[in-house]
C-alpha cells in the first residue's frame, strides 16, 4: 500500500502512527544521520528548532480511470544568499524563539514568515521523532495537512522556491538513496532522494525517511 493508494485513509493512518505530543528535546533523539553510523555532533548547547512537514491532499481528475485522492509534500529551496544551508531543500521552519508557545507554534510561525502559509490553513496531524541534525539542531517535525487552496508567497530573503513532490515518490523506499560526502574532515553518510533537478538530502531527507518508517514499518 502506498501513499496514493491509501487515499483518505492516509490521514487516519497518520493519526494512529504519529506522536500526539512533541518529543522531549532533552531526551536522546531517535532520528538523525547518526543512525547511519555517523558520530553524534559535538555541539553544545544543542539548539531547539521546529519544522512543518506539509502534506497537501488533492483530488485527481474525476473524468479519468484514476480518479481519487493524491497527496504531495510541500518543500522549499532556501535562498542562495542565506548564511546557513543556502540553496538547500528544506521544510518551512527554524529556531524555536522564546516567545513561541510550543514547537507547533514555532513551526506555524516560520511557515507563515517563509512561504505565507497562515496557521488557519494547516491541520496538525502529529509529530515525528525528534531529529538531531549534524549542525546541532534538535528538530521537532510537525506533520500537518495543508488546505489545497493555499497559494505560496515565498519570502525572497529566505526562500527561492516552493514546490510539491508526490508523496508516493517520497514514500517509495527504492528512492531512499544512501550518499556520503566529506564534512569537517569526516566522511558522513546521509539519505538523499533526488527528484528531477532537486536534490533532497540531509536532515530533510532524514525526516522524510522517518515519516516512511512511522507509516510503513511493521
Notes on the structure:
This protein is of the alpha+beta class and 218 residues long. It has one domain (3-173, 181-216): Nucleoside Triphosphate Pyrophosphohydrolase (Alpha-Beta Complex), CATH 3.90.79.10. The protein contains 5 helices and 11 strands. It has helices at residues 3-6, 9-17, 103-115, 167-170, 202-216; strands at 31-32, 47-59, 69-78, 89-90, 93-95, 122-127, 131-132, 137-146, 159-166, 177-183, 186-192. The strands form 2 sheets. Strands 1, 2, 3, 4, 5, 6, 7, 8 and 9 form a 9-stranded mixed β-sheet that branches. It has a two-stranded antiparallel ribbon with strand order 10-11. Strand 7 and strand 8 (137-146) form a beta hairpin. It starts with a helix and ends with a helix. The mean pLDDT is 88.
Give the arrangement of secondary structure elements:
Layout: H1 3-6, H2 9-17, E1 31-32, E2 47-59, E3 69-78, E4 89-90, E5 93-95, H3 103-115, E6 122-127, E7 131-132, E8 137-146, E9 159-166, H4 167-170, E10 177-183, E11 186-192, H5 202-216
Parallel strand pairs: 1-7, 2-8
Antiparallel strand pairs: 2-3, 2-5, 3-4, 3-9, 6-8, 7-8, 10-11
Descriptive keywords:
two-stranded antiparallel ribbon; 218 residues; alpha+beta; 21% helix; Nucleoside Triphosphate Pyrophosphohydrolase
Cα-atom radius of gyration: 17 Å
- The tally of beta strands, per DSSP, is 11
Main β-sheet description: 9 strands, mixed
The amount of beta strand, in percent, is: 25-35%
* Total count of domains: 1
Taking pLDDT < 50 over at least 5 consecutive residues as the criterion, the unreliable ranges are none
Give the topology string: H per helix, E per strand.
HHEEEEEHEEEEHEEH
Q: Write the CATH architecture name.
A: Alpha-Beta Complex
CATH structural class: Alpha Beta
The shape is globular
What share of the residues lie within helices? Answer: 10-25%
Number of helices: 5
SS-based class = alpha+beta
Mean pLDDT: 88
Please, what is the CATH homologous superfamily?
Answer: Nucleoside Triphosphate Pyrophosphohydrolase
CATH-derived topology = Nucleoside Triphosphate Pyrophosphohydrolase
Span between N and C termini? 13 Å
